[in-house]
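Q: Here's a chain of 251 amino acids. Please give me its 3D structure as tokens.
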Amino acid sequence: MKHIPRKRFGQHFLSDRGIIEDIVQAIHPQPGQVMVEIGPGLAALTQPLVERLGNLTVIELDRDLAVRLREHPQLAVIESDVLKVDFSQLFKDKGAKLRVVGNLPYNISTPILFHLLEFVDVIEDQHFMLQKEVIDRMVAKPATSDYGRLSVMLQWRYAMENVLFVPPESFDPPPRVNSAVVRMVPRLDPAAVNVKRLSEIVQVAFSQRRKLLRHTLGRWLEEKQMGGTFDVQRRAEEVPVDEYIALALRA
């Protein structure tokens, strides 16, 4: 029986075998590695992954798909909203870091990325298919139009690269946007910042990105009595990640 993609879950199922093989090669799964797949759908990526790994844990919200996936003897199925999954508890007994992969639902991709930030210490790497414009923002350099809150918050914690372009016709049904695959590797020695404080600083800075920072972050810094050497005669997009981190460390 054919599964009808559900709009409320943002379902677009990968169907291009060539692209699937390219993604698997980019992930480079090895036997025995501990891997979790978010949103396996019709198992297009799941099957070649589990063939190489031996076993695979998948997280699927769609009840009908979860029932199908449970029929596979090498899959452990977690039927849940991924935003409610505690990744630090998944393989606590194995003492191994997780590799996380998935074709993330485009309507909640950013919340998923921020949710996973909470568990980055137990993650070895992440490979996600996302809307290309989201990945462009994730890997953007300062002084570009794509550079923003997402760039700063993720680049602080991950080294990232866009590894593969995926056109709409690779899916059923085809989405209205281009997709891509991003590789995210947690940094080994990130600055020990207060995440909430860094997030607050970045949010204030980019709240009016066309204005000079003296109108936004400058006022915030004065209120916190943190004025001084930070140059507020710039726009938010001109400030490198390291400078935002340095501010958060002072706060």
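Q: Can you summarize the key feature?
A: Confidence is low (pLDDT under 50) at residues 1-10.
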